[in-house]
Amino acid sequence: MKQYGKYLVITGLIILGMFLSYLSASAWGRMVQQKDRVMFYLKQPIALEDALAVAEQNKETAEEYRQEQEEKKPPLSFCIWGQKEDVMLSNENLSRSFMADVILLCGSPELLFEDCRVPVQEDSAGCLVDEKAAWELFGDMKVVGKEISYEGNDYTIRNVVPGKEGIVAFQASRALIEKNTKLEGAQSNESMDGVMQRLTMHKPKGYSVYDLESSWNHAYGFFVDVLDLQLLRGIGGIVMLLFPVSLCFLFGCYLYHLRASLNISSRLFGHFTVGKNGKLLQGKAAAVGLSLMLMGLLLFFLKDMVQIPDDYIPTRWSEFSFWTRLWEIKTEAVKLLLGMPKTVLDSHWMGDFFQTLTGGFLAEALLVVAGFLAQLLKERKT
To answer: Where are the domains of the chain?
Structure first.
């Protein structure tokens, strides 16, 4: 009975590892869904006046592009944004207030909030809130069309987005600058300018991240650094694959060590070998074939998800300076991701990345323990 109990423990470890691997794959899948969006960090905060001017200029360029219908590169689709922390919002009708994080937008809100196209760039009186802010201010989720107050200004809620962070977002406008200047003087305007240091851009097919960076720098002159989430997706993908690849490998080893007494070779290839050695060789060949089939199926399902970026491929594999330069670039990218001021919206990709790593490593550790226990049982039998 003790032996059966140990087999149950091994089976339980593998099942738990599969569940953790599923959680890791789910988090990595959410990261992959964002690969058509690129985030940048402005080297210097952009003044709100300049952010509005850039957004208006890009809007005019987009309108000209639609009217002319010429075969040229489409204009960039982006959103300049920043965060003000711990801002007091109020619902004067219900005498309720709530400390929230405010996201100032200059551009398309859909780049920051999934399937959310309001408030549009011209909407200086609209805002969106997340579920937590809606509940704290109204005690309800159906609050579209209702009003909240922020720094003496009233805003109409256009949409409620999923989230428990407690945020409100609205479009920055010249009217907002004028109102804040009248209320608090130049100090308020400076505090708003200091937060506009992030840029999220849509990545069309056929464009690289560095094409977008070059186009932005050339068109507007506000230099940016790439937030290399592509690197994090790559690291997360490798960790996520540890468990399924190792499981296929261990299963292949198990099949490889099966003896001809299981008659696997006869079922797959027929009876055409003679002697014990022939059957053993044939059984091992069948095991290798099954293992290759499993690996092939795994690669087939992942072929569209795993891609090597062009900047990771050298012109010559013997070019050692390329690998040194690539290492330095990626090291600086990691330092930027770790050292930059974080916003409430960064918690999404950070949470998905750490869930991918945690689930992948724990699943692999459980599989190693299960394999070690199985090996001990095998040695005791012999």
So the answer is: 2-34+232-381, 44-222
